[in-house]
Amino acid sequence: MTEEMVWDLSQLVESTDSAWIQKQLELTVAEAEKFRHKYRGKIASLEVKSLVEMLEAKDGHILRFEGAVMYCLLMYYADSTDAVAKQLNETARKTITRVKQEMAFIDIELGKLLSENPSLINEPALAEYKHYLERILRTVPHMLSETEERLIILKDKNGIEAWEMFQSDWLSTRTFDIEIEGEMKTLPYGKMVGLYQSPDRDLRMRANQTVYENLGKDEIVWASAVRSVCEDHIQMCKLRKYPDPMTRSVIANDIDKQAIESLMKVIEKNAGLYQRYLRIKVKLMDLPKLANYDLAAPLPKMPDKKYSWSEAREEIVAAYKGFDEEIGGWIEKMFARRH
After folding, report:
1. Which residue range(s) make up the domain with 49?
2. Rounded to an integer, what distance in angstroms lies between the CA atom of residue 265 and that of residue 260?
């Protein structure tokens, strides 16, 4: 792996020294506490100008400290086995929880204010925050008390978020033994899944079997994680009085339930088109029947094109520029700066 293929996380912080990072995380919480002391219980009485100042101060807090937090999280994502990365990641997660708890009052108080005066959303001075305020107003019927919201934030860190991180960590550290071209290799999960696209059907089959046989040995872990995550979601839906289990995701993704239902209807209506594609593919591959490990397989006699890092980078940038020149420029800078 060349240097240009590795993140340069140092750009996120003034110093990569662990002690400096720790100090920034402590300061993040301290400043959130000051913000809470200044504004808690006062949002309803703020004039529009003061409301803008409060929102800008909130944004300022995020911009000032997000670099240190993201440095810790991304360092861990890059290498979850590194001892320093583990320690910084856990500290960052605790920091995020503390800050969320300190700031929990904001959406609750803004929600009450907007419920009583919804026309505030269209105030010219608040134009930059219109989308944010609309989202808050949409969540008002499902908000709880500040104490309850703070407890849920803490519960999530040690509950559903912990399960999600455990599942990610567990999967990223799994290795699998497989024979490739007469040589035994030990590969991580990501590379094993990549073999599903191999033109060699026997290799695809063995990769698929190896992965699922090995993951199946830890079915209790998977089952416990899935049950815990699902049960948490069900209980939170009841607690927040969501009309159905989909409501939380619909609100979080800024869409309407009708849009999801329309999407599902279109998919169901066109299921025959996908089935036709599979029938054509099985003929082109000259197989009696497609297996699950054949779905992502290349068609036979396709050119075996391999891309260098620079070629792949150019393809990606060109694709984005084809959609929008400005966005393509952002992607180009992202690669150049190794973000």
Report:
1. 3-143
2. 9
Instruction: Specify if 161 maps to a domain.
Output: no
* Residue with tokens 């969501």, as numbered in its chain: 242
Which positions ≥6 away from 34 have C-beta within 8 Å? none
Considering 95, 113, 143, which residue would you say is the last residue of a domain?
Answer: 143
- Does 219 score more than 90 pLDDT? no
pLDDT digits (tens, 9 = 90+) for 6-58: 788 999 999 999 999 999 999 999 999 999 999 999 999 999 999 999 999 99
Specify whether the CB–CB gap between 245 and 237 falls below 8 A. yes
Contact 4, 309 (CB under 8 A): yes
Number of Cα atoms under 13 Å in the Cβ half of residue 26:
6
For the chain, give the secondary structure using H, E and C.
CCHHHCCCHHHHCCCCCHHHHHHHHHHHHHHHHHHHHHHCCCHHHCCHHHHHHHHHHHHHHHHHHHHHHHHHHHHHHHCCCCHHHHHHHHHHHHHHHHHHHHHHHHHHHHHHHHHHCHHHHHCHHHHHHHHHHHHHHHHHHHCCCHHHHHHHHHHHHHCHHHHHHHHHHHHHCCEEEEEECCEEEEEEHHHHHHHHHCCCHHHHHHHHHHHHHHHHCCHHHHHHHHHHHHHHHHHHHHHCCCCCCCHHHHHHCCCCHHHHHHHHHHHHHCHHHHHHHHHHHHHHCCCCCCCHHHCCCCCCCCCCCCCCHHHHHHHHHHHHHHHCHHHHHHHHHHHHCCC
- For residue range 282-310, list pLDDT tens digits in order: 999 999 999 999 999 998 888 777 888 89
- The rounded distance, in Å, linking the Cα atoms of 208 and 193 is 8
For residue 230, tell me if it sits in a domain.
no
